[in-house]
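Lab notebook, bench 4. Continuing the backlog of folding jobs that were queued last week. Each job is logged with the same field layout so the records can be merged later without manual cleanup. Today's entry covers Protein phosphatase, a 333-residue chain. Filled in by technician R.K.

JOB TYPE: sequence-to-structure
TARGET: Protein phosphatase
LENGTH: 333
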Amino acid sequence: MYTAPHPYSFHIGVSFAPKPPVRFHGEKPKVPFPSDGIIGSWRNKMLARSKQVPTKECGEDFFFYNEMRNKSGVCFGVADGITAWLESGVDPSLFSQALMYHAHRYSRSAWAGEPEVDPTLDYEEREQVEGWELSPYECMDLAYGGVLREKFVEAGSSTACIISLNSANGLLRSANLGDSGFSIIRSSSILYSQPVQTHFFNCPKQLTKLPPPSGKRFRGACVDSPREAQTYRTQLCDGDVIVAYTDGLSDNVFLHELVEICSAEPVAGESDDEQAQAMADRLVMYARECMATKTRVSPFERLAVREGMFFPGGKPDDVTAVVALVRETQTQV
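JOB STATUS: finished
OUTPUT FIELD FOLLOWS
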């Protein structure tokens, strides 16, 4: 197969931690995807990756990352299951895990951009190149359809943020629904930060699967469509850092703190992969520290005050961070 030049490489770090256990009225014992099933075995593989945060649980959050077809780029994302479903006896983690699994399933066999073909081939030969280009919006839409067909997921809902990075041209594309999101750091400052989408305070837009008509309904269900996702694209540069996160991070860590943590000098001898992992670990550990204090003003506290509510200090929550460090490996012609 013809291999086009790939001047950009992306180094991924992932870290995560669950919130303290919370009991809800009507909550059923959680029944996870079976470990010997397709989603369960994939989930276990993702959770087994090495990190400094001492936990192998992700709570109601989940994530994915993978190379795309022919190393044309990488795709990754985060999802945050809506905790309130526990009150109706529904495990929110099943929805977020299934959503991220299906996003992984579709993106790993697709191209980050137009399929790469040998320019010396005839038109008919070019047409034989397999695969298709997949945008983050299309990935979200297909993954949501996969969850709706997933029999093990009775009901639930989740936010979603999906990002693709093109190794041929350095293009970032994203689709985001809800209050998960991402930020791009360039030269120790914020280049872009994804605005949140909410129905009202602390109620994000969300992809939803309602229970069958005979089942118990979730009274507060918000049913949003991938069509409502915000999309974004930009050109990346060598040294850029992209951080995708659930609101467990953004509700506890200010953007200037995010920049400081990701801009710290790397340890001597650290590889780019190790740098990305260290950033992700530091972000999650700092977010957990912020959750545990009531004497520090948090981003969530400031938002609550604007709504006339009193919520001092940090907000305990699941927290997930996926960090991508961009390297331009050769000069583009």
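OBSERVATION: The first strand starts at residue 8 and ends at 17.
SIGNED: R.K.
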